[in-house]
Amino acid sequence: MPGKSTLADKSFDVLMYAFLCLVFVVTFYPFWNILVVSLNDATDAVRGGLYLWPREFTLESYRSILRNSELIGSVKVTVLRTVVGTPLSVLAIALMAYALSKRELIAWRFFTLFFIFTMYFGGGLIPTYMIIKSLQLIDSFWVFVFPGLIGVFLMILVRTYIEQLPPELEESAKIDGANDLQIFASVVLPLCVPVLATIALFIGIGHWNSWYDSYIYTYKPELKTLQAVLVKILNQYQTGAMVSEAEALAKSSKRIPVSGESIRMAVTMVSTVPIMLVYPFIQRFFVKGIMMGAIKS
Q: Which residues form a coiled coil (predicted)?
């Protein structure tokens, strides 16, 4: 009878829930273990056996990171580049996608192929550095924003999304006397919120996690990003922790509060948690934005 679940349906539901629980444990537990190790005394952690809870709770690894004089400034730089770079990139991508969604655009095929070409071929590190230097972006905050302002893949995603919008909406706006910019601002942008929120997540994560551009293009300490400073701290502790396991065990009586391992775990938490807190706010747009922007009707 319709609406009445059978034994096979119940068995399938049980298996599905068990599988989802297994996936959750497999994906969540490594992150939880990193947190546990980062909160445990480093000397005690040498013994191993840390699974669910710290045996000897301590925040010394986090204090060691936060005592670094460069860290606070790097957080400001990273937050600023994320707050400034993300909306600028989203706006530039949306404008480019809207223009390329118009097949009647002069040289439409040329511009489309031109952007697609850049997805597969690049000039390399040295030519890129020379171009950025010629633009006087070295040791400038804007080197974090302008070189990667438009992601071609994300632009194609938004363009496909715009092409699926009913053309009657733009036609009615034109009848009311709206020009292209007015149509883009008042009609297209509000309808593109799901896909724009999705690419904003990608771009924001990219800005937050980026460290290589800070490493290559900036020399002033006040322009170093959080990830670049954390990499520097991590390298310092890794270099200082290059001792054998026997030596570490021999020094266990000294109760060393931090180690290269605990610092690595604390660095992972410091760099990951803030951007993870943003995801729940735009998660509801994520699947809708990806699917509607990736499927061409």
A: none
Q: How many CB atoms lie within 10 A of CB 158?
A: 27
Say how far apart CA 259 and CA 45 lie, in whole Å.
Answer: 9
Mention every residue, 6+ apart, whose C-beta is less than 8 A from residue 271. 208, 209, 226, 227, 230
**Distance (Å, rounded) from C-alpha 55 to C-alpha 52?**
9
pTM (whole model) above 0.85: no
**Distance between first and last Cα of the chain:** 37
| 61 pLDDT tier (thresholds 50, 70, 90) | confident
Cα 32 to Cα 271: distance, rounded to the nearest angstrom: 15
Q: What is the pLDDT of residues 75-126, one digit of tens each?
A: 889 999 999 999 999 999 999 999 998 888 888 899 989 998 988 888 888 8
What are the tokens at 24? 């959750």
Q: Which has the closest alpha carbon to 196: 108, 288, 279?
A: 288
Distance separating alpha carbons of residues 199 and 154, to the nearest angstrom: 6
40 touches 50 (CB < 8 A) = yes
Residue partners of 89: CB distance under 8 A and separation at least 6: 145, 148, 149, 150, 151, 203
Give residue 74's Cα distance to chain centre: 17
Alpha helices per DSSP H over 39-144: 42-45, 60-66, 69-100, 108-120, 125-134
User: CA angle 132-134-135, nearest 5°?
Assistant: 65
Predicted pLDDT of residue 197: 86
